[in-house]
Each structure stands twice: as structure tokens, then as C-alpha cells.
Design a protein that fits this description.
Layout: H1 14-29, E1 36-37, E2 46-47, E3 57-65, H2 69-76, H3 82-95, E4 100-110, H4 115-132, E5 136-143, E6 153-164, E7 179-184, H5 193-199, H6 216-220, H7 228-240, E8 247-250, H8 255-259, E9 268-272, H9 281-290, H10 294-300, E10 305-311, H11 316-322, E11 327-334, E12 342-344
Parallel strand pairs: 4-5, 9-12
Antiparallel strand pairs: 1-2, 3-6, 4-6, 7-10, 7-11, 8-10, 9-11
Helix pairs in contact: 1-4, 3-4, 7-11
């Protein structure tokens, strides 16, 4: 094989990259707000932050990816919702602190850059941003053919939000006797896919779910739900009754045990009422096909609850009324040192 003498011969198609940038710019432009300065395409995204009603504002940031869910999108040739996953994963993380999102950036790295695929991916990012009412102010598209083979790619996102310091949700107000509310997930969201793919092999992805028109692949690619609007409605309702959210946990990597205790003071845990919410069919299928123990399921997956909310016992009814598909799933309890802080009964 002869030594490459041009960038294209080395595997980087600059012309195709320029076509991709044009399509990315169009997608991002649809999310622009008056706070975005200079438009899209500069070396850095410019965002004019007006503190407005935020007294002693605190910026909250998060970065995340989509994990091996990308392999399912690549195998099925469906890239239009993977960007929605990315946005919602990041925005939910900053919402846990009570922050309202301000703007978003993305990073896309590919081996074989095709402008139409890039347009689908970034179009999903833009759609997620538009749904949240925030701009996609910039990002990076990197073509690395020796690192990402064929049609494979990786995707990362970066979200920045703001909250008044007095409005931060940090778990410090949680007390034993508080109630735990669960906000349903739309499916696996963006976690547990290495185990899910090991159990549900690619040849099964085109098969229908049990008695359902949707396929297994449809269920695996169901986008990550955003809780931003739900949490705004919930907080308004609780504050009108003189209370507030005591803590929030986004059930992502590490499942219940890896996330809920992070939002509770030392010495406290939660007792979870198994069966108090409907578990999406995809989790049952994974558990049955893989003969996976209950303990491993809750350590790996959200099993149908994507966000937990701790509130004072007297505000449960107001919380459930504010978010109609929420459900009461447990309570905060004292836990001796060294004992599990998430217990299922």
C-alpha cells in the first residue's frame, strides 16, 4: 500500500466534513435564542448570561455520553434520536441540583464521516435542545478513521444551567420519615446497554415485543426522558404549599444503589416498595432472557424509575397531582453504618 499523500487518502474527507458542518449549522441555528451572540461557527460559543431573578446565581454543569446504546443505533441505522438521549441525560443531571438549563454543546467523533448521518445525529441534539427551550451554541465534529472503524462513532454533550444559591437542592433537608416519589422512565435511558446487548442479541432487535407492534430494537432505542418540565411543575406545586423538594436522584450508571445514596445525608437510606410502579416490558424481557437476579437488575438498570424525588410526607399528594404519572415508591429511613442504603421490600 502506498503512503498517503493527501488528507483524503489518509481517510479524512474535508469536503464531506464541510458539507456536514453546513447541515450542523442549520440544525443548531433553529435553536438560537437572543442570548446567543455571534451565531454558530466561531471557535467558542458566545452566550450572554443575564442573572435576572437569580440572586447569588450558581452555575451548574454536566457532561455525559450515550454509552453502548450507540452500537444499537449504528446496527439499525437509526441516528435521529440518539442526540435526544444525550441532551436529556445531561439536563437531568443538572436538574438534580435545581438548575434551569442555559445552553448546550456537543462533541461527535466518527470514523467514516457522512454528512447525512451527521445531520441525523446533530438534528437529534438540536431537537432535544429545542424541546428544553435552550440553544445548541457550538460543538466539535472530529473525523478519526484510525480510532473509529467504519460507521462507528462516539457522542458527548455538555450542559450548563443556573440556580439561585438559596434554591439549590442538595439533600441537606432530607429527614427520616420523608416520602420517596418516583418519576417513570421511558426505558433503559442510556445505561445498562452492555448487559442488555449481551442478553438481547442483534438478531432479536427486529422482532416484536410480546404482543406489541414495537420491536425490541424500538424499545432499546426509546429516547431518554427529560424531567426538566416535570421538576419545574413539581417545585411550583410544593412551594405553593410552603414546602420544596428535599432531594433528587437521577437513576443512571450504577442503578439505584449507585445514585440514590449520593443525594441523602449520612445515616439515611430508603426503603423501596417493590411493585409500586409499572415496570416497562423491556426490563422484564432482559431479566427473563438473561436469568438476571433482582439485585443485579437494580444495580444496573433504572427498572422503570428514572428520577427519585424526596419530599416531606405531608406534601405527597401535591407532588402526585403536579406530575400525574409519578408514584409513591418508598420512604426515607435511618440506616446503621455499613448497611445497604437502598432496600427493596
Amino acid at each position: 500500500m502506498s503512503t498517503p499523500r493527501t488528507y483524503r487518502e489518509a481517510g479524512v474527507d474535508v469536503d464531506e466534513a464541510e458539507r456536514a458542518v453546513e447541515r450542523i449549522t442549520r440544525a443548531a441555528a433553529a435553536t438560537v435564542t437572543p442570548a446567543v451572540l455571534g451565531g454558530i461557527g466561531g471557535f467558542g460559543g458566545l452566550f450572554r448570561f443575564d442573572p435576572g431573578s437569580y440572586v447569588d446565581p450558581v452555575l451548574v454543569s454536566s457532561t455525559d455520553g450515550v454509552g453502548t446504546k450507540l452500537l444499537i443505533a449504528v446496527a439499525l441505522g437509526r441516528h435521529d434520536t440518539i442526540g435526544v438521549d444525550l441532551v436529556n441525560a445531561c439536563l437531568n443531571d443538572i436538574a438534580v441540583s435545581g438548575a434551569n438549563p442555559l445552553f448546550f454543546l456537543d462533541y461527535l467523533a466518527l470514523g467514516d464521516l457522512r454528512a447525512d448521518v451527521v445531520e441525523e445525529i446533530v438534528g437529534g441534539v438540536a431537537a432535544g435542545c429545542a424541546a428544553a427551550g435552550i440553544p445548541l451554541i457550538g460543538g466539535e465534529t472530529a473525523q478519526m478513521p484510525d480510532l473509529y472503524r467504519d460507521s462507528h462513532y462516539d457522542l458527548a454533550g455538555f450542559a450548563v444551567g443556573v440556580v439561585a444559591r438559596a434554591d439549590l437542592i442538595d439533600g441537606s433537608r432530607v429527614r427520616a420519615g420523608d416520602e420517596v416519589i418516583g418519576l417513570p422512565s421511558s426505558g433503559l435511558h442510556t445505561n445498562g446497554y452492555s448487559l442488555a446487548r449481551a442478553v438481547l442479541l442483534p438478531e432479536t432487535w427486529s422482532r416484536p415485543m410480546n404482543g406489541d407492534a414495537a420491536t425490541i430494537g424500538d424499545a432499546l432505542l426509546e429516547p431518554h426522558r427529560s424531567y426538566v418540565d416535570d421538576l419545574r411543575a413539581l417545585r411550583r406545586a410544593l412551594r405553593s404549599g410552603g414546602g420544596d423538594i428535599h432531594s433528587l436522584a437521577h437513576i443512571t450508571g450504577g442503578g439505584w444503589e449507585g445514585n440514590v445514596p449520593r443525594t441523602l445525608p449520612a445515616g439515611l437510606g430508603v426503603d423501596v416498595d417493590t411493585g409500586s410502579w409499572p415496570v416497562p416490558r423491556i426490563f422484564t424481557l432482559i431479566q427473563q432472557r438473561g436469568d438476571i437476579a433482582d439485585e443485579e437488575m437494580v444495580r444496573t438498570f433504572n427498572v422503570g424509575i428514572g428520577m427519585t424525588v424526596v419530599v416531606a410526607a405531608g406534601l405527597v399528594d401535591a407532588a402526585l397531582e403536579a406530575v400525574p404519572d409519578a408514584c409513591r415508591i418508598g420512604r426515607v429511613v435511618e440506616v446503621p453504618q455499613g448497611q445497604p442504603r437502598v432496600r427493596f421490600a
